[in-house]
Amino acid sequence: MSQVRLRFAPSPTGYLHVGGARTALFNWLLAKKQRGTFILRIEDTDVARSTQESVDAILQGMEWLGLDWDEGPFYQSERFPVYKEFVQKLLDSGKAYKCYCTAEELEAKRDLAFKEGRKPKYDGTCRNLPAGAPDDRPHVVRFRAPQDGVTAFDDLIKGRISFNNDELDDLIIQRSDGTPTYNFVVVIDDATMEITTVIRGDDHVNNTPRQILLYEALGYPVPAFAHVPMILGADKTRLSKRHGATSVMAYRDMGFLPEAMVNYLVRLGWSHGDEEIFSKEDLIEKFNIEQVGRSAGVFNPDKLLWLNAHYIKTGDEKRLADLLTPFLADKGIDLTEGPDLIQVVKTLQERARTLVEMAEGAVFYYQRNFVYDEKAVEKFFTPDTASLYRLLIGKLSDLDTFGHDGIESVFKDICGEKGFKLGQIAQPVRIALCGGTAAPGIYEVMTVLGKEETCLRLERAAAFIDKK
After folding, report:
1. Is 451 labeled as catalytic in the residue annotation?
2. How far apart are CA 342 and CA 152, in angstroms?
3. Catalytic pick from 119, 241, 331, 375?
4. Which residue among 21, 189, 261, 401 is least crowded, i.e. fewest CB within 10 A of its CB?
């Protein structure tokens, strides 16, 4: 068929890992670029380890990243009758056979192979047993792989890869309990779902020749393969929890935006000149799987943080306010007791790197009775400061329009009257309004708080000084 069809097929044995998310993203982008179909398939044949909680985590991660699928999700656990049908088809055609070797016998064969310096592959004991002979003993079903020749494919990322068939043993396609194996079911699913391009991690390279042989034995076209290098930590070992969070949703909970995560993940191995910032529309237009590098990407949390800060700084204030709300709720903030959150966000966008940082920076807007920073109190809270606060209250109260320009004129008036520099007023006022010296621009803060709240906080600080 002419239309490109791609899939992401995670195993629901845990959260959506950043490596899996990048694989999903590459598949999604190529499907969008070529106006094809993106399919989500849950590979849950490992019944003992697969959980509904993990399925939910994967779906949640995909939805958060905005990686919508066109078909699915399909579940392998619901397709067992299909797999059994294909196992029987291979048995009937003589391309598979029943193997009665016990686990103990196979272990003994492996030990002997090691002692003799041979590769520990299955020796074909049951390969030439009479076909169709009734035997009720427990057995597995093995694929009858060719024993000579070469299986090769042109990987879209890694180039030409070849395997000698005499290095491949007769793959088990059905276990003794009747359940199918991974390498078999993935072929059946990709073949029957008409997948044209398989993009996956390069830990699957060694599975590919066995899968190609199965496609050929079943008479299905072999898809194109692209094996993406793994993601490493800063120490060049495989990315793990010791390098930081590996779950996509953990980054959401740390206050990262999905567009920052998408932008960062795509740049782990793919580039387009010197460009760093990409919208999804940019990526759909520019992404090309052949431009993915052959070497592993190194996960750099600082780079992700930089990207997140960019998307916060340039983001829509209303959307950021919506995303910020649950972070403030976690801090017990009642948004009905304070200024408009969108206006608060506008004052914090410039400096915040994450939504967690933004939430921490927003708290003072909604909590009037905060504790003043001790060092700031020691440095700035003097009797003269209390007088300054009350002078400022009087002048601010006279303003007809309480906004940036009016507030700025009041500060300039006081500087002129008292011979102060702006910083000599701004820092003490910032402490009175925010509790410390680290806060947004003072005019912006006062505008958002409003005249009444600003004056109340200035009087509270003056009263605090009076009691010292």
Report:
1. no
2. 58
3. 241
4. 401
